[in-house]
Design a protein that fits this description.
heterodimer; A: 12 helices; B: about 280 residues; mainly alpha; about 70% helix
Chain lengths: ~260, ~280
């Protein structure tokens, strides 16, 4: 009996730790009007045009990050898988970079390296956005790498490539029409987590573009001035996190343990 | 293998990735390392590292380490207990599934939204603070503040202990029933089993996970920034300040601090890898 009792006790304590802040945020976000529950905070959030622009900006960045990561990693990993098995160690080590170089250091290095000649990317808006995108790709790298790697291990890559090529397919066709469709589901895991990371990422966005361009810096700024609207936005972002990561777990591919991201 | 052609072009196809890694992963970190070894006139020097003895810098490192150690240990203990509950203690499968799903979300739920969730919970007008006050308990009267060391610990543990659950569940699942049965057969009590068999087997995994939790907190910036506006003297905050403006009146010190941070994170990941490898001797 005592063993079971303590097991329940610890689990319930765990649940409480998870849920009290979530519940409190929800309740807090509904109390913008004194004395009654209302959706006033949400109405104000949606009325602020910066919410829409920053949300869309971050969502676009997230999609771009995912697409570019796949474009960069899929051919590299397929070829590594087939021909350069020893190159894997390099990839494994690079996947640790976002942990060893936390985002605050990464952005420090970015600004030091890309804000003076020969590569002054931060002088132009386009250059800055490009740099931000590259930063997101670095943060997403471990997840996308592991997801694609797992996908390639699960299928018989070699046979598929040989079959495609003996039928006359080019490398491009092989990648786009044979490899990619076969590992699409495995990649989903990486895309969901990448989406959640980019949507919630503060550090890179704050120091590279600042202001209210991206979602997390906008949220941080709002938190300085307002009380209830940030809570409403937090509920929205929490729903988004649940939706993305929950879906991933539900797909049964959530066993991956994440040690870097938007802390 | 010769049917798929291996050519120079194939090797060249690795170039985009290598170029990306060099430009955006290696170079930004590398330039900080190089600059930390240079003086203002471009000569080589170790003076920047000597400057780390600055009391403010030492305070920042100590604070970061204190927060990371505290949250790693609390997170490890709490996470281990929950992981124990959902593995060995044999709670129903749905409890396990639910807690693991929550852990997956919560270990990723950090940064600005997490800070605001806790402000709504334990801030001065937070739901729990107000509730406690109505019950006659003034939380902020006890010296507690969400915007201080203790508050940061409470918030960090929110993403620390779920990570511990995720890390330890496979290890606890790996404890074989036969080991327990064999020890019982030989007359061991549950205490003996845990003291001499289970804990020694689990210890490398537990330490590995705790080390990882340490690094997880040490590199964190966004949560503390959103909560305290970067006013706590921590390494991450000082580096952030030196990006915005030169607080230390010496750029070189900021580079040295960044290098020190990369060094600590590298040690963390090495420690984790070594311990993890040792744990695989028994748990596969």
């Amino acid at each position: 009996m005592p063993r079971r009792f303590f097991a329940w006790l610890w689990s319930i304590l765990g649940f409480i730790y998870f849920f009290v802040p979530i519940y409190a945020t929800l309740e807090f976000s509904l109390k913008a009007q004194k004395g009654v529950y209302s959706l006033l905070a949400y109405e104000r959030v949606f009325a602020d045009s910066r919410f829409g622009t920053s949300f869309v900006f971050s969502a676009q960045m997230a999609v771009l990050t995912i697409v570019l990561c796949i474009v960069l990693l899929l051919p590299t990993l397929t070829i590594t898988h087939l021909f350069f098995k020893r190159f894997r160690i390099v990839l494994e080590l690079l996947a640790l970079v976002p942990f060893v170089v936390p985002s605050i250091i990464l952005v420090f290095g970015f600004i030091r390296f890309y804000s003076r000649p020969p590569l002054s990317l931060t002088n132009t808006t386009l250059g800055t956005y490009g740099l931000l995108l590259a930063g997101y790709m670095v943060l997403a790298m471990p997840y996308m790498y592991r997801a694609i790697d797992a996908g390639l291990r699960a299928i018989d890559t070699r046979t598929l490539v040989e079959a495609a090529q003996s039928l006359g397919a080019s490398w491009m066709t092989t990648m786009l029409r044979v490899i990619f469709p076969n590992i699409r589901v495995a990649i989903l895991n990486g895309t969901f987590i990448t989406f959640a990371i980019v949507m919630g990422e503060l550090t890179l966005a704050q120091f590279l573009v600042g202001g209210t361009v991206a979602f997390a810096p906008y949220l941080a700024l709002l938190g300085r001035a307002r009380a209830y609207e940030p809570a409403a936005l937090t509920v929205i972002s929490l729903l988004l996190t649940w939706l993305t990561i929950g879906t991933m777990q539900w797909l049964g591919r959530g066993q991956r343990i994440n040690i870097s991201g938007a802390r | 293998m010769p049917r798929v052609r291996r050519s120079v072009w194939l090797t060249l196809s690795l170039v985009p990735f290598v170029a990306f890694a060099l430009l955006f992963m290696i170079a930004p970190a590398g330039i900080l390392l190089v600059d930390s070894l240079r003086d203002t006139r471009g000569g080589w020097t170790l003076a920047n590292f000597a400057e780390l003895a600055n009391p403010l810098v030492i305070e920042a490192y100590l604070m970061s380490i204190r927060i990371s150690v505290t949250t790693a240990v609390i997170g490890a203990v709490l996470g281990l207990l929950v992981a124990y509950a959902i593995t060995i203690a044999g709670l129903p499968a749905w409890v396990r599934t639910m807690l693991l799903t929550f852990s997956g979300v919560a270990s990723n739920y950090a940064g600005v939204p997490l800070a605001f969730a806790f402000i709504a919970t334990l801030g001065r007008t937070g739901i729990v603070t107000v509730l406690l006050k109505s019950l006659g308990f003034n939380l902020y009267g006890t010296g507690f503040s969400l915007y201080s060391f203790i508050g940061l610990v409470v918030v960090y543990v929110y993403f620390q202990f779920p990570l511990m659950i995720l890390l330890m569940t496979p290890a606890l699942d790996g404890l074989k029933r036969e080991w327990r049965e064999a020890s019982m057969m030989l007359g061991a009590t549950p205490y003996h089993y845990w003291r001499h068999i289970a804990l020694p087997i689990l210890m490398p995994s537990i330490l590995a996970a705790t080390v990882l939790l340490f690094g997880n907190a040490f590199g964190a910036f966004a949560t503390a920034y959103a909560l305290t506006g970067g006013t706590l003297t921590m390494v991450t905050n000082m580096i952030a300040q030196s990006i915005s403006g030169d607080v230390l009146h010496n750029e070189g010190v900021a580079y040295a601090m960044a290098t020190g941070m990369i060094g600590i994170m590298a040690l963390t990941i090495i420690g984790y890898t070594v311990l993890q490898r040792r744990s695989e001797r028994w748990l596969r």
